[in-house]
Design a protein that fits this description.
Strand content: under 5%
Number of helices: 11
Low-confidence stretches: none
Radius of gyration: 20 Å
Largest sheet: none
Shape: elongated
Structural class: mainly alpha
Order of helices and strands: HHHHHHHHHHH
Helix content: over 70%
Length: about 210
Protein backbone atom coordinates (compact mmCIF):
# COMPACT_ATOMS: atom_id res chain seq x y z
CA UNK A 1 0.00 0.00 0.00
CA UNK A 2 2.21 2.79 -1.33
CA UNK A 3 0.78 6.04 0.01
CA UNK A 4 3.39 7.65 2.22
CA UNK A 5 1.43 10.81 3.02
CA UNK A 6 -1.63 8.88 4.19
CA UNK A 7 0.37 6.17 5.93
CA UNK A 8 2.21 8.81 7.95
CA UNK A 9 -1.01 10.00 9.59
CA UNK A 10 -1.56 9.31 13.25
CA UNK A 11 -3.08 5.86 13.76
CA UNK A 12 -6.43 7.00 15.12
CA UNK A 13 -7.16 9.31 12.19
CA UNK A 14 -5.90 6.86 9.58
CA UNK A 15 -7.97 3.99 10.99
CA UNK A 16 -11.04 6.22 11.19
CA UNK A 17 -10.77 7.02 7.49
CA UNK A 18 -10.08 3.40 6.53
CA UNK A 19 -13.02 2.11 8.57
CA UNK A 20 -15.33 4.65 6.95
CA UNK A 21 -14.16 3.51 3.51
CA UNK A 22 -14.60 -0.17 4.35
CA UNK A 23 -18.13 0.38 5.64
CA UNK A 24 -19.19 2.45 2.63
CA UNK A 25 -17.67 0.17 -0.01
CA UNK A 26 -18.91 -2.99 1.74
CA UNK A 27 -22.50 -1.80 1.98
CA UNK A 28 -22.80 0.03 -1.35
CA UNK A 29 -20.11 -1.36 -3.64
CA UNK A 30 -17.77 0.79 -5.69
CA UNK A 31 -20.26 2.32 -8.11
CA UNK A 32 -22.81 3.40 -5.50
CA UNK A 33 -20.36 4.36 -2.76
CA UNK A 34 -20.33 8.05 -1.87
CA UNK A 35 -17.17 9.93 -0.94
CA UNK A 36 -19.48 12.44 0.77
CA UNK A 37 -20.65 9.69 3.12
CA UNK A 38 -17.06 8.59 3.72
CA UNK A 39 -15.82 12.04 4.71
CA UNK A 40 -18.87 12.53 6.92
CA UNK A 41 -18.25 9.26 8.77
CA UNK A 42 -14.51 9.90 8.98
CA UNK A 43 -15.04 13.52 10.08
CA UNK A 44 -12.62 14.96 7.53
CA UNK A 45 -12.93 17.33 4.58
CA UNK A 46 -13.49 16.02 1.07
CA UNK A 47 -10.50 18.03 -0.10
CA UNK A 48 -8.26 16.23 2.37
CA UNK A 49 -9.53 12.83 1.26
CA UNK A 50 -8.70 13.59 -2.36
CA UNK A 51 -5.38 15.12 -1.36
CA UNK A 52 -4.37 11.70 -0.03
CA UNK A 53 -5.89 9.54 -2.76
CA UNK A 54 -6.53 11.71 -5.81
CA UNK A 55 -9.74 9.97 -6.83
CA UNK A 56 -12.30 7.37 -5.81
CA UNK A 57 -10.58 4.62 -7.79
CA UNK A 58 -7.29 5.00 -5.90
CA UNK A 59 -9.21 5.17 -2.63
CA UNK A 60 -10.95 1.88 -3.36
CA UNK A 61 -7.77 0.10 -4.44
CA UNK A 62 -5.95 1.27 -1.33
CA UNK A 63 -8.81 0.04 0.87
CA UNK A 64 -8.90 -3.26 -1.01
CA UNK A 65 -5.16 -3.80 -0.50
CA UNK A 66 -5.46 -2.83 3.16
CA UNK A 67 -8.18 -5.43 3.76
CA UNK A 68 -6.23 -8.16 1.96
CA UNK A 69 -3.06 -7.46 3.93
CA UNK A 70 -4.89 -7.20 7.25
CA UNK A 71 -6.85 -10.44 6.80
CA UNK A 72 -3.90 -12.42 5.49
CA UNK A 73 -1.75 -11.36 8.43
CA UNK A 74 -4.49 -12.03 10.97
CA UNK A 75 -5.80 -15.37 9.73
CA UNK A 76 -3.48 -16.94 7.18
CA UNK A 77 0.03 -15.69 7.92
CA UNK A 78 1.12 -19.02 9.37
CA UNK A 79 0.04 -21.83 7.09
CA UNK A 80 -0.40 -25.15 8.84
CA UNK A 81 2.83 -26.78 7.66
CA UNK A 82 2.86 -29.21 10.57
CA UNK A 83 1.04 -31.63 8.31
CA UNK A 84 1.87 -32.63 4.75
CA UNK A 85 -1.66 -33.94 4.25
CA UNK A 86 -3.55 -31.78 1.78
CA UNK A 87 -6.98 -32.42 3.28
CA UNK A 88 -5.92 -31.52 6.82
CA UNK A 89 -4.41 -28.30 5.52
CA UNK A 90 -7.56 -27.40 3.60
CA UNK A 91 -9.72 -28.05 6.64
CA UNK A 92 -7.56 -25.63 8.62
CA UNK A 93 -7.90 -23.00 5.88
CA UNK A 94 -11.67 -23.40 5.73
CA UNK A 95 -12.08 -22.99 9.46
CA UNK A 96 -9.88 -19.89 9.34
CA UNK A 97 -12.08 -18.53 6.58
CA UNK A 98 -15.26 -19.08 8.61
CA UNK A 99 -13.69 -17.40 11.61
CA UNK A 100 -12.56 -14.48 9.45
CA UNK A 101 -16.01 -13.88 7.96
CA UNK A 102 -17.67 -13.95 11.37
CA UNK A 103 -15.11 -11.62 12.96
CA UNK A 104 -14.58 -9.22 10.03
CA UNK A 105 -17.88 -9.18 8.12
CA UNK A 106 -17.45 -5.77 6.49
CA UNK A 107 -13.96 -6.46 5.17
CA UNK A 108 -14.91 -9.83 3.76
CA UNK A 109 -18.12 -8.42 2.28
CA UNK A 110 -16.20 -5.65 0.52
CA UNK A 111 -13.62 -8.06 -0.88
CA UNK A 112 -16.19 -10.64 -1.95
CA UNK A 113 -18.32 -8.05 -3.73
CA UNK A 114 -15.27 -6.56 -5.43
CA UNK A 115 -14.17 -9.93 -6.80
CA UNK A 116 -17.59 -11.35 -7.70
CA UNK A 117 -19.00 -8.13 -9.17
CA UNK A 118 -15.91 -6.32 -10.44
CA UNK A 119 -16.62 -2.70 -11.41
CA UNK A 120 -15.69 -2.13 -15.06
CA UNK A 121 -13.33 0.71 -14.18
CA UNK A 122 -11.43 -1.57 -11.78
CA UNK A 123 -11.65 -4.85 -13.67
CA UNK A 124 -8.03 -4.87 -14.87
CA UNK A 125 -6.48 -4.01 -11.50
CA UNK A 126 -8.72 -6.31 -9.46
CA UNK A 127 -8.25 -9.23 -11.84
CA UNK A 128 -4.48 -8.89 -11.54
CA UNK A 129 -4.66 -8.70 -7.75
CA UNK A 130 -7.00 -11.70 -7.52
CA UNK A 131 -4.94 -13.85 -9.87
CA UNK A 132 -1.73 -13.04 -8.01
CA UNK A 133 -3.37 -13.83 -4.67
CA UNK A 134 -4.87 -17.09 -5.97
CA UNK A 135 -1.53 -18.22 -7.38
CA UNK A 136 0.22 -17.41 -4.12
CA UNK A 137 -2.48 -19.22 -2.15
CA UNK A 138 -2.20 -22.36 -4.28
CA UNK A 139 1.59 -22.33 -3.90
CA UNK A 140 1.28 -22.07 -0.12
CA UNK A 141 -1.23 -24.90 0.06
CA UNK A 142 0.87 -27.18 -2.13
CA UNK A 143 4.16 -26.50 -0.36
CA UNK A 144 5.68 -29.81 0.79
CA UNK A 145 2.39 -31.64 0.23
CA UNK A 146 2.57 -35.43 0.13
CA UNK A 147 1.15 -36.35 -3.29
CA UNK A 148 2.00 -40.04 -3.12
CA UNK A 149 -1.65 -40.91 -2.51
CA UNK A 150 -2.94 -38.93 -5.50
CA UNK A 151 -4.18 -40.81 -8.54
CA UNK A 152 -1.56 -40.66 -11.27
CA UNK A 153 -4.12 -40.20 -14.05
CA UNK A 154 -5.43 -36.90 -12.61
CA UNK A 155 -3.53 -33.61 -12.85
CA UNK A 156 -2.64 -32.50 -9.33
CA UNK A 157 -3.66 -28.88 -9.92
CA UNK A 158 -7.08 -29.92 -11.23
CA UNK A 159 -7.57 -32.20 -8.25
CA UNK A 160 -6.68 -29.32 -5.91
CA UNK A 161 -9.13 -26.97 -7.65
CA UNK A 162 -11.93 -29.53 -7.38
CA UNK A 163 -11.22 -30.17 -3.70
CA UNK A 164 -11.14 -26.44 -2.93
CA UNK A 165 -14.51 -25.93 -4.63
CA UNK A 166 -16.00 -28.63 -2.43
CA UNK A 167 -14.40 -27.19 0.71
CA UNK A 168 -15.61 -23.67 -0.13
CA UNK A 169 -19.14 -24.99 -0.50
CA UNK A 170 -18.97 -26.59 2.94
CA UNK A 171 -17.54 -23.40 4.43
CA UNK A 172 -20.34 -21.31 2.94
CA UNK A 173 -22.91 -23.70 4.39
CA UNK A 174 -21.62 -23.10 7.91
CA UNK A 175 -21.14 -19.38 7.32
CA UNK A 176 -24.86 -19.08 6.54
CA UNK A 177 -25.68 -20.99 9.73
CA UNK A 178 -23.55 -18.76 11.97
CA UNK A 179 -23.75 -15.39 10.21
CA UNK A 180 -26.36 -13.99 12.65
CA UNK A 181 -24.80 -15.52 15.76
CA UNK A 182 -21.93 -14.44 17.96
CA UNK A 183 -18.36 -15.47 17.22
CA UNK A 184 -18.34 -17.29 20.55
CA UNK A 185 -20.96 -19.74 19.29
CA UNK A 186 -18.84 -20.53 16.26
CA UNK A 187 -15.72 -21.01 18.35
CA UNK A 188 -17.57 -23.25 20.80
CA UNK A 189 -18.80 -25.42 17.94
CA UNK A 190 -15.42 -25.72 16.20
CA UNK A 191 -14.87 -29.31 17.33
CA UNK A 192 -18.28 -30.34 16.05
CA UNK A 193 -17.67 -28.56 12.74
CA UNK A 194 -14.28 -30.21 12.40
CA UNK A 195 -15.85 -33.65 12.86
CA UNK A 196 -18.48 -32.90 10.23
CA UNK A 197 -15.80 -31.61 7.87
CA UNK A 198 -13.89 -34.85 8.28
CA UNK A 199 -16.94 -36.87 7.24
CA UNK A 200 -17.29 -34.83 4.05
CA UNK A 201 -13.55 -35.00 3.45
CA UNK A 202 -13.70 -38.79 3.60
CA UNK A 203 -16.38 -38.71 0.89
CA UNK A 204 -14.20 -36.46 -1.30
CA UNK A 205 -11.12 -38.62 -0.71
CA UNK A 206 -12.70 -41.98 -1.44
CA UNK A 207 -15.72 -41.13 -3.60
CA UNK A 208 -19.31 -42.33 -3.46
CA UNK A 209 -19.54 -45.37 -5.73
CA UNK A 210 -18.64 -48.76 -4.27
Amino acid sequence: MQNSSFNSLEDEKRKRIINACIEEFANKGYDNASTNSIVEKANISKGLLFYYFGNKKNLFLYTFDYCIEYLLNKYFNEMNYKTSDLFERLIWLSLQKMKMICEEPLMTKMLSNAIINMPKVLEKELSQKYNALYTKNISSILKDIDTSKFRKDIETKKAIEFIMLCIDGLSNKYINIYKNRSIDELLNDMEKLMNEFKIYIEIIKYGIYV
